[in-house]
Amino acid sequence: MPATVAGLRYPCTRVLLPRTRLAYVHLGNLMSDAKRDRAARVSGYVAIWLPEEFVVLYMQRGEVINACTHDGTDFRPVAVAAAVEKVPTEPEYGEICFHEADDDQLSCMFATQTVPPEPWPAELRATDPAALFPYLMASTFDGLVEIAAEGEVNYLLFRNGACHTAYLAGSPVGTLVERVGRLFERDRRALHVTVRRWETPVPVPIQAPAGLVQAYRDLTTSLVLRLVAEGQESAPVIAEHARMQLARSHPALEGFSFNGRPGRQVVADTEALTDAVASFISELLWTASDHEGGDPEGLMRELTHERRHLFQSAGFFDRFAWKMS
Asked: Looking at residue 117, what DSSP letter applies?
């Protein structure tokens, strides 16, 4: 596994499964139990160390809501299904743990893995607590500070320059001040301590369900095929052009394709995905359909009928002026 993540340890409120060889744990059963067992419906994270990657699954009340991977260089968000697929069904190597954690801590973890940190002033030595904390107080800093030392990743949340919440991975012995102080001990700083900061993190986004993603892919593909059948032979070209143009403001559209290219993973919440698909369909119908004799309302009602309840629950129909549900 990548050396940069092999020893990572995150804070937790309770250890549900200590770090264990992956060969002894069935990930699918672990996730199913987390859904079925009321006692296991907790917020937390599943960390999986694979030979080539490190995977983090974010869980909220027993449901996997998001995921990130680290390839030895950087973290990046990935679709939950894609993250789970990275774990072999019969793994020979790798390790796994399942820890309960507060939702606010999960927000800290996800932010530090997906958002670039804010730079420190050039003159500030952030690894020196005698300089760091007075600076945070003087600047009335609001946000998150991550302190990583010897594989332990720790989070401090600040409001008006004062720390109001801390999530620490080390020993729970001592007061908060003593525990934070130990992170900056001279011997540790001599090895490697990194201190980074972010704005106050937002809650971990809940990824759109895989079933909704597939439903939208099927809908957009069916729409293009129907336009071709009705004489708009250039519909695939128009659709791909519209997708590329709109993808700048709707990144979820990178997961769709109308030129034979495999679509990328869709990493978006339901709101962002639905906005993206509705914008694409509106643009496509406006550009490709016959405005004088066409019936976009009737066409969309027909194409969405089978999955109308799924689309309705996602708020899809609310994005259009037509009545389709």
From this structure: P
Percent helix / strand / coil, the chain, rounded to 5:
40, 20, 35
- Dihedral angle over CA of 107, 204, 264, 217, nearest 10: 180
Helix axes 235-246, 270-288, angle to 10 degrees: 140
Residue 252 and residue 22: Cα distance in Å, rounded?
Answer: 32
What letter would DSSP give residue 203? P
Helix (H) or strand (E) holding 319, with range, is none
Mean pLDDT (the chain) is 90
Q: Of 244, 317, 322, nearest to 236 (Cα)?
A: 244
pLDDT digits (tens, 9 = 90+) for 165-211: 999 998 888 888 888 888 888 665 556 789 999 999 999 999 999 99
Domain regions of the chain by residue span: 3-101, 129-198, 210-319
| Helices and strands of the chain, counted as H and E runs | 12, 10
Q: Is 226 exposed, middle or buried (0-12, 13-18, 19+ CB in 10 A)?
A: middle
pTM: 0.87
CA 37 to chain centre: 24
The label of the residue with tokens 């095929």 reads 225
Which residue from 1, 89, 101, 82 is spatially nearest to 42, judged by alpha carbons?
A: 101
Largest CA distance in the chain: 77
- 291 pLDDT higher than 50: no
